[in-house]
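By way of example, what follows is a protein record of this kind.
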Amino acid sequence: MERSIFAALLGGIVAIAALGGLAFVWGPPGSQPPPPSSRVVGEWRLLEPVTYENISIFPVVSSNSQDTSAFLTLEEGLATGEVIVRESGSETMVRGRDGRIIYVPQYNTGARVNQLVLINRSRRPLLLLAGELVSGGKQDRVIGKDRIVPIAAPPLPLDVFCVEHGRWTGASQQFAAANTIVHPSVRERAAVDQKQEEVWDAVRGGTTAKVAPSAPAPVLLPRMSAQSIQGAIDTNGRTEAYEKIYVSRAIGVPIDDFVEEVQRRFAVATSGLKDERVVGVVVAYGGEVAWSDIFASGDLFDHYWNKLLRSYTIEALARPTYRAVASRDNAAEFLRHLNGHITEETDPGVYRWREITEGRLTQIELDALQPKTITLHRLLLHRTS
């Protein structure tokens, strides 16, 4: 009798322990386990990759999309005239007492390759992303760093990098929206290395990624070679203009077809979401996870997505292609917070820029500090150098 009672009690304890184990795995009563096609990391959920040729794009979704409508993008600001970008040195922009912009000629000075002047005339803070291209002036340039330009700020000396080696003329001092973000190899050189010569080298070479000597031979030859890029430069009168090389058909590779197919597959893969928005992507070339862009909101991601996709495509066409597909576990590594050397820059009450380096990984975050602190953009990349 005592043995049976003891056995019953023991069985109850085991059952309770088992139930406790289930509760630990699946969470509180009523919750559902993550779908088998996803990987949850913090506030983000990583979906299965969208694959095509040598590229894999893992959608990053979240149910915590922030309200980012208070921020103006560079493309919107330049298109409406609320943002003005001019060459630095030939004249100075100042804001009069009534708020109007006054142009003051500067004598014995000249335009500078790596600096422009920007003024935000809108009633919204302006968001700038490293790699965004502005066209015009004496040369096309790309923004060097993520940052926010506040409302009613004085004219801002803006650090930039030239992506049009060979031209230093222009009838107009003003710049226009280019609707382009340069591809990852060029963007890395501008945002991380911050060296003009290396930016030019990345424009000329297509990609800065190298294949390790021990790597298997590529199944397909690169479709965008340094020779084809040089041919596009020669066709363009030796002006190494980024847009004329990579946006036109001068490069001789099917960029538009590639973009359209990935876009179609991505739309299908993300069409069934409920109470979640796509807020970013993790990008792999062959089996190598290389890059991620994540935003505070689905609206911000939607605004930049077409430009980002084209930039990822250019990189894919320039890199050696392999049949391998990156694993979701390796992609999930790009969602974790790095532990390493930290560099910060802050404009009090406006934004905080932070770079974290861990081995060959670099994470760059841009936090808006008003009206509340949110991370507007997070970039994580595997450096090619």
